[in-house]
Amino acid sequence: MLKNTTTSYGWVAIIIHWVMALSIFGLFGLGLYMVELTYYDAWYKGSLDLHKSLGILVLLTFIARLAWRMINVNPDSADVNATKFETKSAHWIHIALYILMATLFVTGFLISTADGRAIAVFEIFSVPALPFSVDNQEDIAGEIHEILAWSLVILAGVHGLAALKHHFINKNQTLVRMLKVSEDK
After folding, report:
1. CATH number given to 11-177
2. pLDDT tens-digit readout, 152-177
3. pLDDT digits (tens, 9 = 90+) for 52-111
């Protein structure tokens, strides 16, 4: 089953979800590593180029995810006993995750193109810079990017803990639905 149903996520949604989750945590780890490097470290430029290229690929995956979400049904909650607070919290956390991802892409782009150069994505294609920049664009966007990255990882951790709570405490199918496709149609 490729598409979502009212009771289950399809393979496309599941794969996109986990590819993005792993990519975001990988980019976060690479980002932490990168900021400790000095200009003279052997992997300074390579880590920056890799981070930028992967960031653009995750952006493309994010766009595909939004498009897929718009043309598919969203499964109903697997927790029929959820409180109104839990339901509203889950909704707003998902919105916050999407907003954080979108603004991370924007700030990453602003950092990477502050000098007016395009972003080369694995030397396959380039994303052009804006024809203008502002004073200290790289530093301002960099500070915001760091705050957003930490916020995203913390909120994704909360999201993961909530899924584990649903699985182990509430004993419902919330987590299982994002791990495998249900056999029911």
Report:
1. 1.20.950
2. 999 999 999 999 999 999 999 899 99
3. 999 999 999 999 999 999 999 999 888 888 889 999 999 999 999 999 999 999 999 999
Residue in 157, 165, 159, 4 with CA at minimum distance from that of residue 79: 165
Residue 54 one-letter amino acid: L
Tokens describing residue 123: 């030397």
- Distant-in-sequence contacts of 145-152, Cβ < 8 A, 24+ apart: 145/104, 145/107, 145/108, 145/111, 146/31, 146/35, 148/100, 148/103, 148/104, 148/107, 149/28, 149/31, 149/104, 151/100, 152/24, 152/28, 152/97, 152/100, 152/101, 152/104
Angle between helices 11-34 and 44-71 (to 10 degrees): 160
Domain boundaries, the chain: 11-177
Give the span between the Cα atoms of 68 and 109, in whole angstroms: 24
pTM (2 d.p.): 0.93
Q: Which residues contact 184 (CB under 8 A, 6 or more apart)?
A: 5, 7, 8
Question: Which residues lie closer than 8 Å to 158 by C-beta, 6 or more apart?
Answer: 93
Q: Cα(185)–Cα(171) distance, rounded to whole angstroms?
A: 22
